From TrEMBL:
This is Phosphoserine aminotransferase. Gene3D superfamilies: Aspartate Aminotransferase, domain 1, Type I PLP-dependent aspartate aminotransferase-like (Major domain). The keyword Amino-acid biosynthesis applies. One of its GO terms (molecular function) is O-phospho-L-serine:2-oxoglutarate aminotransferase activity. Its EC number is 2.6.1.52. Keywords: Amino-acid biosynthesis, Aminotransferase, Cytoplasm, Pyridoxal phosphate, Serine biosynthesis, Transferase. GO terms for cellular component: cytoplasm. The gene is serC. It comes from Lucifera butyrica. The modification N6-(pyridoxal phosphate)lysine is found at residue 196.
Length: 361
């Protein structure tokens, strides 16, 4: 294989070509050190500069002040499911969860091991086709936090805007962080596994308000306290340095694209190409998500039969479009079109969809 192909995998997912080329160019000799970034001490000046730049760029892109810290942790977004309640759900208090898909269910399940929880809203009865409306959300009396999943990677739904809630907001933004502007200062804690929209796997980004970062209980293991990582600027122990380096390159790329408003415009344009192919297919393609809950990152759809779905996925692969098979729990097809997916990839997929319908419809 000599050419790059269009990668629609949900995660790990496509990275910007320019970023990969940059990493390739300095693989053997990073920043005149005569070493690869993989070989450099995390206590070196060179690595400290990357760590600091990545934190500053994330805050800059999100418009966050010094009231926030950015941490680079390990264990995936899945470890945040338990770290959040472990640090912030004391006995006698309640944490609220809004359920919009499999990932929020998993987050709730982990919290249940630590204390009282309350489901403030759920759309599971609708097979998670939609995001609840503001009037469907009923918080408990005085929750320590309200947890939401901003984009539902598996079902293909996304909060179009965030509700105004009185509780401190915690969000899993693994699959849409930095894909659009939003008011990040409404959140006490945001977490995201990097492998969808930020970089490679192996690092989890946590954006945390400083008062929260300082309030971890001393009774939990040192490594599982946010305060440990906040105090040590993510350098308490050996960080996933190569993954953080890659995130830093992705953030530079994102700034060059014009930041979140500019990337959001591109993301809308890209997703519209594929949703148009669905909506104009006269029912041949059926979107899983309700129209007003559609995700710009993960586009889920079905064909008239599972057999056709399989044929679609394998013919798409032959046409250099990979990773379109849907998650096993929803079935059908899923096109993941994160920031790094070029417009040309969405154009190619939309054209392929029309041609596939013409020959199989
Ligand atoms: C992928 C994903 C996760 C799990 O991430 P890991 O880093 O594999 O633990 C959690 N939440 C959402 C929304 C995801 O898309």
């Amino acid at each position: 294989m000599t050419e790059r192909i269009f990668n629609f995998y949900a995660g790990p997912a496509a990275l910007p070509l320019e970023v990969l080329q940059e990493a390739q160019a300095e693989l053997l000799n990073f920043d005149h050190t005569g070493m690869s970034i993989m070989e450099i001490s995390h206590r070196s000046k060179a690595y400290e500069a990357i760590n600091a730049e990545a934190e500053a760029s994330l805050k800059e892109l999100l418009g966050l002040s010094d009231d926030y810290r950015v941490l680079f942790l390990q264990g995936g977004a899945s470890s945040q499911f338990f770290m959040v309640p472990m640090n912030f759900l004391p006995s006698g208090r309640t944490a609220d969860y809004i359920l919009t898909g499999s990932w929020s269910e998993k987050a709730l399940k982990e919290a249940q091991a630590f204390g009282q929880t309350h489901v403030a809203a759920t759309t599971s009865a609708d097979n998670y086709r939609r995001i609840p409306s503001a009037t469907e959300i009923h918080l408990s009396e005085n929750p320590v936090y309200a947890h939401i999943t901003s984009n539902n990677t598996i079902f293909g739904t996304q909060w179009q805007s965030f509700p105004k809630l009185t509780a401190p907001f915690v969000a899993d933004m693994s699959s849409d962080i930095l894909s659009r502007p939003f008011d990040a200062s409404n959140f006490a804690l945001i977490y995201a596994g990097a492998q969808k929209n930020l970089g490679p796997s192996g690092v989890t980004v946590v954006i945390i308000r400083k008062d929260w970062a300082e309030s971890s209980p001393a009774t939990i293991p040192t490594m599982l306290r946010y305060s440990t990582h906040s105090k040590n600027a993510s350098l308490y122990n050996t960080p996933p340095s190569v993954a953080v380096y890659m995130i830093n390159l992705v953030l530079r790329w994102l700034k060059k694209q014009g930041g979140l408003a500019a990337i959001a415009k591109k993301n809308q344009e890209k997703a519209a190409l594929i949703y148009d192919a669905i909506d104009r297919s006269g029912g041949f393609y059926r979107g899983h998500a309700d129209k007003d809950s559609r995700s710009l990152m993960n586009i889920t759809f079905r064909l008239p039969s599972e057999e056709l779905e399989q044929t679609f996925a394998s013919q798409a692969t032959q046409s250099d479009m990979i990773g379109l098979k849907g998650h096993r729990s929803v079935g059908g097809l899923r096109a993941s079109v994160y920031n790094a997916m070029p417009l040309a990839g969405c154009q190619a997929l939309a054209a392929f969809m029309r041609e596939f319908q013409r020959t199989n419809g």
